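[step 3/7] fold_predict: job queued, chain A
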Amino acid sequence: MPTITHIETSGLDSSAPLFVETFLIDGDGTLTYSKGFDLACFGFKPGPSSGLSVFDLFQDDPALLETIKRALNGEAINTEANMAGITYATSYSPVLDIKGKVKCVIGVSCDITERKATQKALLDRNEELIKINKELDKFVYSASHDLRAPIASLLGLIEVARLEKNMDSITRLLNMQEKSLLRLDRFIKDIVDHSRNTRLPVECESINFEKMLQMTMEQFQFMDNVNKIRTKIIVDQEEKFFTAPSRLEIVLNNLISNSLKYADMQKDDPFIEVQIKSNSRSAEIKVIDNGEGIPTDSKSRVFDMFYRATANGPGSGLGLYIVKEAVGKIGGTINVNSEYGKGTEFVVNIPNLLHQPPH
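[step 4/7] structure written:
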């Protein structure tokens, strides 16, 4: 039986896994030379009289045996393999005698784990840049329209108001101008939120959900019909909760604002309910309403940039996109359940960053 005739450990402890550097396999499959060869990971102790050929040594690894056989048949092969979290790149180079028969196979293997990690980081960054560029193109196109439309409307209303003498009509025109300005202000706020969420680092602070919700609701006290909408807030915060307050504010502001804006005032009891339950590991946030609901064909797109489920909606089409991005920044998830004409439920789950810092 062919045997392993020489193994070099480069002074390393033979009981520790050894990193493959170079090896030499005879034409009959004898491993005749190895420097730093990792025998320990296969359950064998390296030594000059192991009595094993490569076919014995790797009998439980059919893929590797097939590679070696191909190399012994004269094929030059380059492979990559992962073992115990380390990625190895190995080249098999057959050496032929004067008759063209494989005399031996020279192998060189090295640890490319760091290189693979760098490649992955570059690929991830490239994908991120592609995404940013696509979003930028879409943003410029949509923003130019959404910024100009309220301004054009405002200029037209001003011209009409100049010709108007009736005070009631002037008041009506002023209200219309105000709505155009509020729409423009909301769009600019969405742009600022998007920019902050994309570029600012994730800060981590202790959060009091009840106080944050109270401050959020105060912002909407002058919205249309807000006094006619029943609101219910349930907070069950067991322990200290850490997350990024700026991101959480974006999430709560947008979800609650949407529920108020799309409330169905034709219903007997229009309501919005916010439920938050948190513990040492995570928090679940639910924003539930019995408003207009989301059409079935729009559910899959509500988180897309500039997508509006209804053309008549007052929103910019950025709100839910920003919400999803903000939730992702703090390591969470968001899902929506909705039935058109009956209402909507958004469910957000975020980790407690006290022990789980976001990546």
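[step 5/7] annotate
Confidence is low (pLDDT under 50) at residues 1-18, 39-51.
The longest strand covers residues 86-96.
exit 0
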